Amino acid sequence: MTGLVMPTPDTETMRRRAEIVADMRIIVPGEGVVDTVNEMRAFESDGLTAYRQLPLVVVLPETVLQVAKILKYCDERAIRVVPRGSGTSLSGGALPLEDAVLLVMSRFNRILEIDYPNRTVTAQPGVTNLGITHAVEQEGFYYAPDPSSQIACSIGGNVAENSGGVHCLKYGLTANNVLGIEMVLMNGEVVRLGGKHLDSEGYDLLGLMTGSEGLLGVVTEVTVRILKKPETARALLIGFPTSEQGGQCVADIIGAGIIPGGMEMMDRPAIHAAEDFVNAGYPLECEALLIVELDGPGVEVDHLIDKVEAIALANGSTTCRISQSEDERLAFWAGRKAAFPAVGRISPDYYCMDGTIPRKELPRVLAGMRALSEKYGLRVANVFHAGDGNLHPLILYDANIPGELDKAEDFGADILRLCVKVGGVLTGEHGVGVEKRDLMPEMFTEIDLDQQMRVKCAFDPQHLLNPGKVFPQLRRCAELGRMHISGGKLPFPDIPRF
Amino acid sequence: MRVCMLMTTFTPTSAAETLSVIQWALANEAPLEIIGHGSKRALGRPIQTEHTLDLSKLSGVMLYEPEELVLSARAGTPLAEIETLLAEHGQQLAFEPMDYAPLLGTQEGRGTIGGVLAANLSGPRRLKAGAARDHILGISAVSGRGEAFKSGGRVVKNVTGYDLSKAMAGSWGTLAAVTDVTFKVLPAAETETTLAVRGLLDEDAATAMSLALGSSAEVSSAAHVPYPAVTRIADGALGSDAATLLRVEGFGPSVDYRLRTLTDLLKNAGTIDTLAADLSRTVWRDISDCVPFADGSERPVWRVSMAPNEAHRMVMALRMQAACDAFYDWQGGLVWLRMEADPEAEVLRHLVKKSGGGHATLVRASHALRAALPVFEPQPPALAALAARLKQQFDPKGILNPGRMVPAAGSASLPPVHTEEATS
Ligand SMILES: Cc1cc2nc3c(=O)[nH]c(=O)nc-3n(C[C@@H](O)[C@H](O)[C@H](O)COP(=O)(O)OP(=O)(O)OC[C@H]3O[C@@H](n4cnc5c(N)ncnc54)[C@H](O)[C@@H]3O)c2cc1C
Ligand SMILES: Cc1cc2nc3c(=O)[nH]c(=O)nc-3n(C[C@H](O)[C@H](O)[C@H](O)COP(=O)(O)OP(=O)(O)OC[C@H]3O[C@@H](n4cnc5c(N)ncnc54)[C@H](O)[C@@H]3O)c2cc1C
């Protein structure tokens, strides 16, 4: 990835920078246009900090009309645009381009409507994920998808990345919790998809937009469904001597018809790092630690806790603690929640991966990772959304040692290849961005990728919105539209027909 | 040059054969009607093609791993076969796919898993669990360009590339012929019970339902069935008083507890009955399949998707202008309407738009009416243009189900795409 090739900057656009900046100031008067190098520094990277690039200009619009005007202006002049929410993407989705306007949506920060009878919140895209829950929690409601970055990441960014979180096992990803959006197409047209109704009409463009990483349109409004907070939540903290046993326990819980509110696993290096950091009381002798949270009415939670405990014992758990208070439940989570910074303490740098695998492949993938760890001479700690097979290996490296970043990236790429090989995918929730862009052919054929790019052509035929992300190679829409017609004869005697 | 031949039905038995049929159709610009079991041919816009691509022989479950909550099947696999297999393992398609057969007067228990995706249908549990589109994990398909492609995978957490699988949901076979599907499956609830508040007016029912759904009782389905629709549910087992129905599913002790919570919450709303598991299942199956309007007639039936709590007001306004019967599923988010005579498409769609938006689909009507009226909700111009561009990218020559959702380009006998938005 360090050899990342981005689209060649357009010299004509670069030459006309001053004029473009001036025109942006006309569209967005006041403080909304940032063009000095010093001020633009704040926007030069997102959560994937290994990559930095100053944009052409930063524009922070405040109204949908301004967004529409900016996009139309850029479309007419073939100027590239990179949308950005809070800049927490871990895949470089919001990485600027030298010749592109960086369209920052953070000033769209208002909740527009709370509708309890229909259980929806309509918000501008710059509202943080947690901001939505905060707006409704006094009435006992919350917004279920809960990325760990929820204090900072924007709901618009969540839609663009189809973000997940611990609760997604039971309550679904962003895609399952968004009812409608308003968005602006690259040509400046404003369209609404869905609304407060449950099924959106026509083609499922809302489904296509969710997870499209800012390549199809700019989201200017989001309507989500909210849920009533469960009456109680309790957690079990279960240790196993081997990761196989931990994995089997997860399978057996689900096999028993139980879908926990959250089910997370950590491996030995992650357990140790977390315990050293927050003293959560984690058992240090086990190879796999499982946190299982059950939520709902008290009687249900108690009933299921007993079942899960029995399943854990049957799978050879060496410790099993059940939270007896809200404080204890939170303590169980404290280590898991602090796992990233905890690993940050034991290594100068770490690189967070995000593959998903069929759960039953966990032992094979962990063994593979251990072998790769030896091969590259780098340590790896694992936290794992165990219920849905989403792995977050954290590769430990030191960017000050020449070549280590490259090694970490190669190691990461090998892990993702392994995930694909066992029937999994390159990214579960962090997105492709620039980070996994060049690995896409590991999962997709050229035909698969071309068909995805054709979707892009329906939305943005000039490839102006967030180019250089997701697709390893950009092909012109005219070229993609060309047909190679074969099979004109009717030679298939083997196909039954009447 | 178009090769005119006898009407042909192609019945491929593999993805490769499906590919060669579509490549042939493309080379000869010969449009195909795609069918699974053809159980919903009476639904949507009628189309006229010389050739039919029948996917019902593309059948069989390819992978089922209960502990991984995943099932893959060829698109023509009968839904009934899949549901039986899942039930044997205490699992289900949580979106509770409905059967249009009673309403449309076709043979019950037909339908393929590919058809379920293409129609994106779901049943009463949609309120809590989502629709087919929320459970599809991956597909393989052949586009109208004569190319076999795949999207998604077999795992739940996956954001690798655009979600083309979701794009197939509700596309009625107009973008690609799906050859295999992978769905997320879920454990079936241990038991269920339904609480019925009797005799409520539509407005009071709306209040009761939003109270129940806003509680922590985890209601999985909520319907209001007024007179006369209620008399046809479960062969008349509910009598003739309006019934506001709240389904609670899960583990036994939890269901009991949540029922008590609901009873307490609604004790002042009206008389409360409790329907035990068997009756509960029958009641929800009948609501799902729109049995109240399965009267063997061709009187127009609409399926309206709108903001749940606005539905009763919309229906009241409609009644001022046209004779109709209604009942509500999804807390009101799904309104089933049977019109006495004229479909009143314009009136209805105008009212839905005024009531917070949504869309109305004409699911039953005479062939002539379905050909003359926009069966699916006409979209505003910018959105319709975007949808048309998407169709163009999947099926540039318009050979897959032309005219099924909107009139095919160049079809003179059919009305143009409705442009109410543009003129208002
Ligand atoms: C227990 C049971 C439950 C049922 N539940 C449901 C339900 O929830 N929802 C439901 O819709 N039906 C259900 N049915 C009935 C069945 O009749 C459905 O209508 C079925 O979804 C339609 O499948 P079909 O194969 O008959 O579709 P068809 O009527 O043949 O097709 C419907 C539409 O989908 C398109 N299509 C079909 N297959 C493909 C494909 N492989 N690729 C691309 N496009 C395709 C067609 O072109 C058409 O536009 C059920 C049946 C049983 C036995
Ligand atoms: C510490 C940490 C923990 C994290 N934990 C999780 C986790 O648990 N689960 C998870 O899923 N992710 C997680 N993430 C990743 C990240 O927070 C999410 O991807 C988040 O949704 C990004 O939101 P954002 O507002 O920061 O978007 P940005 O980073 O600003 O942008 C992300 C992408 O969205 C596009 N975009 C942003 N706003 C819009 C808009 N309005 N319209 C169109 N496109 C737009 C951008 O172009 C870019 O491609 C984590 C990140 C960090 C740093």
UniProtKB/TrEMBL annotation, chain A:
Domain of life: Bacteria
GO molecular function, one term: FAD binding
Cofactor: FAD
Residue intervals of the FAD-binding PCMH-type domain: 51-229
Keyword terms of this UniProt record: FAD, Flavoprotein, Oxidoreductase
Alphabetized InterPro entries for the sequence: FAD-bd_oxidored_4_C, FAD-bd_PCMH, FAD-bd_PCMH-like_sf, FAD-bd_PCMH_sub2, FAD-linked_Oxase-like_C, FAD-linked_OxidoTrans_Type4, Oxid_FAD_bind_N, Vanillyl_alc_oxidase_C-sub2
Record-given protein name: FAD-binding protein
Organism: Borborobacter arsenicus
